[in-house]
């Protein structure tokens, strides 16, 4: 126990130490698996996920890149890879990876939403709108796609159907709040 540390702080510190130890054990396990099977895409993707949690970003990117080359059809690993690229400021690389995944799994609305968000971060709102719209065609009740679509439409000053979009968004947010979910977005209204 550190001097002056509250019991809650001490418990959090112990939990963090335990998590760090478990992550180290998991990384070591996946590394042993890769010694036995050096071209195992699942082991590489799992190791990349652990390294990402450990903050070993460059190593995680390298493992994800290798895993997705070995198994391009693993859209979960590809999506995690693209998300990590985006988080590290490599938005164009993220767009390339998400585009590759969406091409292989065009029926998955989450992938279109993630690709739309990468396009939005790159300032390519027309492309973002296209992918958010596709996600909503695939799953009409998809709060994240809806909130991001409405935001992107505002960014390009597309006011067609604005009232309908906002009513739909308000309804979605009310439903989320009613069941205790964090709203997909917070509406901002101005009296100005």
Describe the secondary-structure layout.
Elements: H1 7-36, H2 41-54, H3 57-70, H4 75-87, H5 91-104, H6 109-121, H7 125-138, H8 143-155, H9 162-178
Give an overview of the whole structure.
There is one protein chain. By secondary structure, the protein is mainly alpha-helical. Helix content is 74%, strand content 0%. The chain is built from nine helices and no strands. It has helices at residues 7-36, 41-54, 57-70, 75-87, 91-104, 109-121, 125-138, 143-155, 162-178. Helix 3 packs antiparallel against helix 4 (75-87). The longest helix has 30 residues, at 7-36. The N and C termini lie far apart (55 Å). 32% of the residues are buried. Mean pLDDT is 88; it is low at 187-192.
Summary tags:
192 residues; mainly alpha; 74% helix
